[in-house]
Design goal:
119 residues; mainly alpha; 6 helices
Length: 119
């Protein structure tokens, strides 16, 4: 998946990932509740997602279906962050994350297990 989703588009995708297929009307209701968007703003962002191939629309009722999974979006964003901020090096990202937080013994154990599983 090589689709860059911006924050506004990710908000729309979040609704679909949480609720599954939804009507544009339902998505607009959620966006109004959560971020104060009007219907026109929501429909504009939906159109961008459809044009990018992240969402598929079906009629009747303008039902939206996510074509990009949450995992795919996370992997894309992580790869972009790695490239942009850490020269593509995951070890630098992990070091940065760990340097700013004290980990519990349980969290350290889980990280060790993850690393062992990668070997």
């Amino acid at each position: 998946m090589d689709i860059k989703l911006y924050d506004s588009e990710l908000r729309i995708m979040q609704v679909l990932w949480e609720e599954g297929d939804s009507t544009a009307k339902r998505i607009a209701e959620r966006m109004k509740e959560e971020v104060g968007w009007g219907k026109t703003t929501t429909y504009t962002v939906l159109k961008k997602c459809i044009d990018k191939g992240a969402i598929e629309r079906s009629d009747p009722n303008f039902v939206c279906h996510a074509l990009v999974t949450r995992t795919q979006a996370q992997e894309y964003e992580t790869a972009e962050l790695l490239d942009k901020m850490y020269g593509g090096r995951a070890d630098r990202l992990v070091a940065s994350l760990l340097g700013s937080k004290r980990l519990t013994k349980r969290e350290i154990g889980e990280l060790k297990k993850l690393l062992e599983d990668l070997e």
